[in-house]
Amino acid sequence: MKFENASQVKKWLRLLPVAKKEMKAKIDMYSELIADLNRVGLADETAGNLKGVTYGEALSSVDRYRQKIKEARDKFDGMMRDWERLRELLDSEEITVLTEKYFKGTSWTAMEFVVFYSRRQCFRILDRAAEKLVGQTVSGDGNV
């Protein structure tokens, strides 16, 4: 996706924390499912002779869950590679404001106490950074 205007840049920046949360949630969920299926498999192995029923098919889902975890990590890693490349185009105050806002989750109200710029100045810095990134490309279509 190529940024055509500053609002697309800002939209993509807002997706960074969302993608991170999505990746963490998927990893947690699928890791839990894998652990549960492994426990079921051990119990099935122990009790298999008594019941004659196995959960082998359910255990084959483990590979699918691991693939989903890999996809979530790959998506987030791609966004991080894009960010590392894009930040080379920005100056230090722009990087600081964007990092505080989109990676650390600092609110605009608290921003002036963290970066020592007024809230209004932070908005100006964000706008300036977004304008610098117009015309740059990022992997994917920008959707989460």
Describe the structure.
The chain has 144 residues and is an all-alpha fold. Helices cover 78% and strands 0% of the residues. The protein is built from 6 helices and no strands. The radius of gyration is 22 Å and the shape is elongated. The two termini are 13 Å apart.
Quick recap of the structure?
By secondary structure, this protein is an all-alpha fold.
Structural class: mainly alpha
Q: How widely separated are the two ends?
A: 13 Å
Number of strands: 0
Q: What is the helical fraction, as a range of percent?
A: over 70%
Alpha plus pi helix count: 6
Q: Which regions are unreliable across 5 or more consecutive residues at pLDDT < 50?
A: none
Mean pLDDT: 83
Q: What are the secondary-structure elements, in order, as H or E?
A: HHHHHH
Radius of gyration computed on alpha carbons: 22 Å
Largest sheet: none
Rough outline: elongated
Classify the beta-strand content into a percent band: under 5%
What key attributes describe this structure?
144 residues, elongated
Q: Could you give the topology of this structure?
A:
Elements (H helix, E strand, L loop, with lengths): L5 H46 L4 H4 L1 H27 L4 H12 L4 H8 L3 H15 L11
Helix pairs in contact: 1-3, 1-6, 4-5, 4-6
